[in-house]
Design a protein that fits this description.
about 45% helix, 6 helices, globular, alpha+beta, three-stranded mixed β-sheet, single chain, about 120 residues
Length: about 120
């Protein structure tokens, strides 16, 4: 799929993020990348042959202190190729992008993968 179409689907998915989570998207950059780099996979604790749909990079809210400031923005990366490989139609793709963004927002709030699983956002 062309990158511009995929980005339109990402924007559609972001519009579907419910409040109060949606308001926090203003604090995070959303970047679409073709695929995760080896460094991204390593940072997520994954092997080179594994894949992922998204990745949060930043300082979770629970780890911020009074000295937090003057830092680069937090980022949620969305990986186009793994999503396209696993979801065939636009509707499914938008739903999974939304699910991925909500999962990564969980990390922004300081929630680990185990707890996200328990909450049904794994």
């Amino acid at each position: 799929m062309e990158r511009t179409k995929f980005i339109r689907l990402v924007r559609r998915a972001l519009r579907e993020v419910p409040q109060p989570f949606k308001q926090h998207l203003k604090e995070i950059d959303i970047i679409v990348k073709r695929r995760p780099s080896l460094a991204d996979l390593r940072a997520a604790g994954l092997a080179p042959d594994e894949s992922m749909y998204g990745f949060y990079q930043g300082v979770p809210m629970t780890e911020r202190t009074s000295g937090y400031g003057m830092t680069v923005p937090d980022v949620i990366y969305i990986y186009q190729e793994p999503l396209e490989d696993d979801f065939n139609d636009d509707r499914e793709l938008v739903e999974e992008i939304r699910t991925t963004v909500l999962h990564e927002l969980g990390h922004f709030f300081g929630i680990d993968d185990e707890r996200l699983e328990e909450l049904g956002r794994g």
